[in-house]
Amino acid sequence: MMDAVDALVLLIGVIGAVGNGISQPLMCIVFGDLIDGMGMSLDVFGRIRVKTAATCGVFFVF
User: Fold this and answer.
1) pLDDT of 4-59, one tens digit each?
2) Is the Signal keyword given for this protein (predicted)?
3) Which of 9, 10, 20, 39 could be cross-linked to 44 through a Cys-Cys bond (beta carbons 3.0 to 4.6 Å apart)?
4) Does residue 49 fall inside a structural domain?
5) Measuring CA to CA, which residue among 59, 1, 7 is closest to residue 29?
6) pTM metric for this prediction
7) Residues with Cβ < 8 Å from 9, sequence gap 6 or more?
8) Exposure pattern of 22-59 as b/e (b: 16+ CB <10 Å)?
9) Can you tell me the distance from the alpha carbon of 35 to that of 21, in angstroms, rounded to the nearest whole number?
10) How many domains does the chain have?
11) Is residue 10 part of a domain?
């Protein structure tokens, strides 16, 4: 049976795992928008968006 200490440790572990798992996709979105803001034309935006999406897709698959 699980007591209060075990439940607390489990809750802290779940929160840490969620934080660790969300960091990579969040950074892909943030840096993708940052790079988009530095572009000069729509063609550059399209190429950067495709490369960012491809990079994020690689991390989601593996």
Assistant:
1) 999 999 999 999 999 888 888 888 887 877 776 666 555 666 667 777 776 666 55
2) yes
3) 39
4) yes
5) 59
6) 0.49
7) none
8) eeeeeebeeebeeeeeeeeeeeeeeebeeebeeebeee
9) 23
10) 1
11) no
